[in-house]
Amino acid sequence: MDEKSHVSLEQHACLVCGVSFDTGSILLDKRLRASMKRYTVTGWGLCPEHQKLSDDGFVALVECDPQRSGSPAGNGKLKPEQAYRTGRLAQLKREVFAQVFNVPIAADQPCVFVEPGVIEQLAAMVAPAED
Ligand SMILES: [Zn+2]
Asked: What integer pLDDT is reported at residue 125 of this predicted model?
């Protein structure tokens, strides 16, 4: 089932959930060689669900396991391909993020990687009052 073709459907991997999704583009081998698999992941993006949340002003907190993730670069930031996602996610409004973490977040940054425990702490802080 590893048949190759000269066309491939382009996919991006979602920064937030890690799922690959179709970009709607078709990649073509210019020399028409059967060099490509059915799907080719060419980069990172946001899947439709997380794109919508980002458009709505949410920042995604993506929990990563530091034991299994690669070591961050010199600037302390983890590259998306190094992050070992635990599958736990939280969405925070940008203005709430800035208040809670006391750091600004770039307008074009859709998500941040956090260590285990951060999302629990946050949930405790922002838990809705019972009514
Ligand atoms: Zn996603």
From this structure: 80
Report yes or no: 105 and 112 within 8 Å, Cβ to Cβ: yes
Residue count (the chain) = 131
Residues (pLDDT < 70) of the chain are 1, 73, 127-131
Tell me how far the alpha carbon of residue 13 lies from the centroid of ligand 1, in angstroms.
8
31 Cα to the center of ligand 1, angstroms: 33
Ligand 1 center from residue 33 Cα (angstroms): 32
SS3 4: coil
- Which residues are found with C-beta within 5 Å of the ion, ligand 1? 14, 16-17, 47, 50
Show me where the domains of the chain are located.
Answer: 7-47, 57-126
> What is the residue type of 69?
S
